[in-house]
């Protein structure tokens, strides 16, 4: 049987005008700024002027990702459609895809099958230009920093201690390390430099955590870009760059309204990577979804050890959010891969391998339930090759933790395949909720890192290399020691080694570099071989993307 591709399904959908979706969501026309027929931005003033009570907040997360796929975004969208099918006023809030993965190996991030947000091509490509605005603001700051050094360096910036990088929203390993300012005195000061992918820029993190233009400007002003010869931090505020950067970002800060294939209102806004940054859509979009819906469904990137940990420990802490329920997405196929089965053998029943892989799911579930004190359900994204015996094993193991399992068939059936999950989520939203963080504000940076490694990863703690400890000491002395921590770590393992699948024990996580994102308001700890500029694979997805004479795009997935 031949299946339609995601883009073919999306292109066959008869979308509703965005004005109709806005009416469904309760957005008055005065707040709507249309970007064509099927996209719009919503003015942030709606949040201040609406007297609607906030709806329930549902977080969708997942097991540790594998090449077999888990379908977290697909499940998020299908759950929102399922909630609407059972009569609940629902809005979904997602991240915007980065062009790097779209043209690289991961593909788009607009869902899949019959649980997608549309227009799929627009969302996966330029969309409303938010990422371009973020990149422009990032690079304006870089240009003003180097110009300050060129024009006499009144602040005494040490060119060897410039920490701010330029960025581009593309996987381009060639730009990781560069030397610029060459060509003589008129062309700048020669120095080592580099590029991050736009979604790893602190501007992206600031953008997604800001609650208003005023908050955005305050955060931008605190961004540390370099250190002086005397070791004093230099900020964007010191460089007088904040007003111009905010001017570039003012329209981008308004959330983007689109729709699911079934017409559920969807905000798609912001997109920091969860293995590098905090991996959540914007605070403004989440709050707007909660203001407009009785149920707001959102997701956090990669597995629960990355996106969910950062959503709970960073985003919820800063924005005063409190989730009402959590969904952990898993597939039997991915769990068998965690149990040692190669991708080519995943279609065969293998209870032994499934049993070996299940501890990965159970650790994530236990973290949500026991570390964070939140009600939780497991959504098994069912494939046709999954056997009843395999499903029963997952159900029985989760039941031992006091957590229910619901089968999800949203890829094939859309919202209809998410109705059972939706019913359980509604029940959980009224269940006891003892939400807490995995560490306290007044813990030291090493204590916070140790708490995450033990309570969330299931390890024996952290190993902080001498250079990283020196950075921690310096940052603590500068007054940054009480900030939350954002661990940059491989998404493929609880450990910092991507080859260690399942649920390893007894390991330590090695912290090799620690820096401050003072504007975002957190400390970044880099572990393992994590990079802030990915590269393209041998056969990038870009090779298979095309557009015909009528402007119809093919090859996106």
Count of runs of 4 or more consecutive helical residues: 19
Give the class from helix and strand content and strand pairing. Answer: alpha/beta
> What portion of residues is helical?
25-40%
Question: What's the main sheet like?
Answer: 12 strands, mixed
Poorly predicted regions: none
Give me the count of strands: 25
Strand content: 15-25%
Distance between the termini: 19 Å
Radius of gyration: 23 Å
Overall shape: it is globular
Average of the residue pLDDT scores = 95
Please, could you describe this protein's structure?
- Helices cover 35% and strands 19% of the residues.
- With 557 residues, it is α/β, with parallel strands linked by helices.
- Strands 1, 2, 3, 4, 5, 6, 14, 15, 16, 17, 18 and 19 form a twelve-stranded mixed beta sheet that branches. Strands 20-22-23-21 form a four-stranded mixed beta sheet. A three-stranded antiparallel beta sheet has the order 7-12-13, with helices on one face.
- Strand 5 and strand 6 form a beta hairpin.
- Helix 4 (72-85) packs across helix 17 (419-428) and helix 7 packs across helix 8.
- The two termini are 19 Å apart.
Topology:
Layout: H1 6-12, H2 18-25, E1 32-34, E2 40-42, H3 45-49, E3 56-62, H4 72-85, E4 90-94, H5 99-103, E5 111-112, E6 115-118, H6 120-124, H7 130-150, E7 157-162, E8 166-168, E9 178-180, E10 191-193, E11 195-197, H8 202-209, H9 213-222, E12 224-228, E13 233-235, H10 242-249, E14 256-260, E15 265-268, H11 283-292, E16 295-299, H12 304-319, E17 325-330, H13 332-338, H14 351-371, E18 376-381, H15 388-399, E19 404-408, H16 410-413, H17 419-428, H18 445-455, E20 462-464, H19 466-477, E21 485-488, E22 509-517, E23 522-527, E24 546-547, E25 553-554
Parallel strand pairs: 3-16, 3-17, 4-15, 4-16, 8-11, 17-18, 18-19, 20-22, 21-23
Antiparallel strand pairs: 1-2, 2-14, 5-6, 6-14, 7-12, 9-10, 12-13, 14-15, 22-23, 24-25
Helix pairs in contact: 4-17, 7-8, 7-10, 9-10, 13-14, 14-15
């Amino acid at each position: 049987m031949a299946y339609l591709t995601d883009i073919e399904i999306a292109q066959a959908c008869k979308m509703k005008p965005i004005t109709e979706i806005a009416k469904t969501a309760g957005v008055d026309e005065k707040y709507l700024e249309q970007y064509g027929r099927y996209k719009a931005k919503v003015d942030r003033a709606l949040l201040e002027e609406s007297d609607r009570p906030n709806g329930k907040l549902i977080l969708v997360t997942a097991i540790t990702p594998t090449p077999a796929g888990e379908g977290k975004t697909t499940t998020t969208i299908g759950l929102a459609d399922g909630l609407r099918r059972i009569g609940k006023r629902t809005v979904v809030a997602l991240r915007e895809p980065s062009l790097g993965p779209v043209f690289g190996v991961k593909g788009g991030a607009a869902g899949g099958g019959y649980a997608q947000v549309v227009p799929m091509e627009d969302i996966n490509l330029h969309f409303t230009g938010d990422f371009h605005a973020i990149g422009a603001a990032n690079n304006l700051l870089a240009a003003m920093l180097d110009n300050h050094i060129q024009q006499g360096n009144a602040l005494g910036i040490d060119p060897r201690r410039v920490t701010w990088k330029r960025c581009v929203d593309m996987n381009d390993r060639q730009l990781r390390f560069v030397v610029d300012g060459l060509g003589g005195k008129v062309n700048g000061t020669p120095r080592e430099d580099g590029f991050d992918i736009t979604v790893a820029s602190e501007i992206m993190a600031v953008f997604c955590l800001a609650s208003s233009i005023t908050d955005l400007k305050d955060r931008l002003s605190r961004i540390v870009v370099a250190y002086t010869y005397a070791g004093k931090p230099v900020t964007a505020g010191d460089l007088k760059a904040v007003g111009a950067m905010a001017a570039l970002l003012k329209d981008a800060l308004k959330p983007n309204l689109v729709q699911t294939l079934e017409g559920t209102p969807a905000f798609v806004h912001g997109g920091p990577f969860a293995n590098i940054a905090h991996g959540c859509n914007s605070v403004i979009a989440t709050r707007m979804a909660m203001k407009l819906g009785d149920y707001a469904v959102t997701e956090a990137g990669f597995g629960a050890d990355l996106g969910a940990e950062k959503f709970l420990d960073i985003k919820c802490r800063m924005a005063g959010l409190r989730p009402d329920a959590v969904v952990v997405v898993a597939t039997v196929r991915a769990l068998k891969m965690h149990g040692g089965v190669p991708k080519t053998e995943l279609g065969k029943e293998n209870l032994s391998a499934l049993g070996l892989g299940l501890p990965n799911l159970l650790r994530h579930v236990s973290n949500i339930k026991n570390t964070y004190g939140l009600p939780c359900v497991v959504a098994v994204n069912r494939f046709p090759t999954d056997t009843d015996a395999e499903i029963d094993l997952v159900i029985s193991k989760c039941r031992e933790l006091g957590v229910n399992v619901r089968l999800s068939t949203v890829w094939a059936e859309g919202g209809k395949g998410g109705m059972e999950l939706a019913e359980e989520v509604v029940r959980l939203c009224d269940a006891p909720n003892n939400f807490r963080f995995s560490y306290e504000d007044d813990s030291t940076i090493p204590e916070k890192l140790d708490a995450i490694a033990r309570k969330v990863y299931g390890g024996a703690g952290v190993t902080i290399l001498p250079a990283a400890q020196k950075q921690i000491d310096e940052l603590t002395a500068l007054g940054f020691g009480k900030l939350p921590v954002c661990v940059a770590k491989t998404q493929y393992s609880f450990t910092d080694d991507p080859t260690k699948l399942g649920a390893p024990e007894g390991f330590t996580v090695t912290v090799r570099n620690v820096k401050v994102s003072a504007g975002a308001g957190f400390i970044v700890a880099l572990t393992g071989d994590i990079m802030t500029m990915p590269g393209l694979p041998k056969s990038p997805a870009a090779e298979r993307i095309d557009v015909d004479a009528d402007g119809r795009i093919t090859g996106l997935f």
